[in-house]
Amino acid sequence: MYEALIPPSIAAMALEHNESTDYYYEESEINGTHDYSQYEVVCVKEEVRNFAKVFLPAFFTIAFIIGVAGNSTVVAIYAYYKKQRTKTDVYILNLAVADLLLLFTLPFWAVNAVHGWVLGKIMCKVTSALYTVNFVSGMQFLACISLDRCWAVTKAPSHSGVGKPCRLICFCVWMAAILLSIPQLVFYTVNHKARCVPIFPYHLKTSLKAWIQMLEICIGFVIPFLIMGVCYFITARTLIKMPNIKKSRPLKVLLAVVLVFIATQLPYNIVKFCQAIDIIYSLITNCDMSKRMDVAIQITESIALFHSCLNPVLYVFMGSSFKNYIMKVAKKYGTWRRQRQNVEEIPFDSEVPTEPTSTFSI
Description:
Largest sheet: 2 strands, antiparallel
Order of helices and strands: HHHHHHHEEHHHHH
Oligomer: single chain
GO molecular function: C-C chemokine binding; C-C chemokine receptor activity; scavenger receptor activity
Distance between the termini: 46 Å
CATH superfamily of the largest domain: Rhodopsin 7-helix transmembrane proteins
Membrane topology: Multi-pass membrane protein
Protein name: G-protein coupled receptors family 1 profile domain-containing protein
Subcellular location: Cell membrane
CATH architecture of the largest domain: Up-down Bundle
Radius of gyration: 23 Å
CATH topology of the largest domain: Rhopdopsin 7-helix transmembrane proteins
Helix content: 55-70%
Transmembrane segments: 54-78, 90-109, 129-147, 168-190, 210-233, 253-271
Strand order of the largest sheet: 1-2
Number of strands: 2
């Protein structure tokens, strides 16, 4: 069976399910009563591995370049130029950080797809955990943004700025993601085939794998999707009822956010759910079907990862205020290059003069 050539959130736990049981437990745990009849049928998946060696490095390279460029711009603008932030700004900044940390794990998995894991057991655990932390936290911050937007449209606007509740929510999101990554820290290791994979205790392998997988689906997709769906439905209904406003653009943005989330995340989570059911009931017994499932998880998880590249466009660059910040920074950088002297900058968040700030090159 295919050997976890893609990031570890789900593929490594299930894609070797039908080939070799040494994927799930250490050899020392096998006792003399073990039934070796399961080794009679071996599904050889060389073509799946060859597909991964070509597809994954190419896709990860594209996602890494686009995602790092977009999310780095977001972090730079929010961290150094936008001094007065709303709650949504804080959530977007945390989302960009999570996306960046997630994207920084992709080169490791690209190398793993081609050459196997070459960085040792500790880095296998840490990289797998980082992947899970940032993938899950990113989905949760999307839900937080939808909640704050819904509140801003349906309730009276507040000028209190960022307070303790906002910081507490961010802390809880990160802690929940870290807790969900504990199985990666505990069970991931480098097997004898030089692959970074989870190795579970034999007596817990089925229930533990299925439980972890279902938990990832609920926290990483179902809950954020339900929150986003309800919040954006209420927001859209409120916008439609408002008189004398230009409704088309915000409604189109909301529609784009929901459609992109469904298009990128739903296929991946459907495949994850099917694999969780297969782990419990061993429904896939045909080698060709198992190969198709392996390819499906490669493609759908890669598409899900690409959402981290689209977040800056959906949540930041489509906003007029952020585009104004970029234009001001670019204009000031051009002025600096022409004059080659210190220029006092106009702050973005207030019309009151402040101390000069450094220019930023995009």
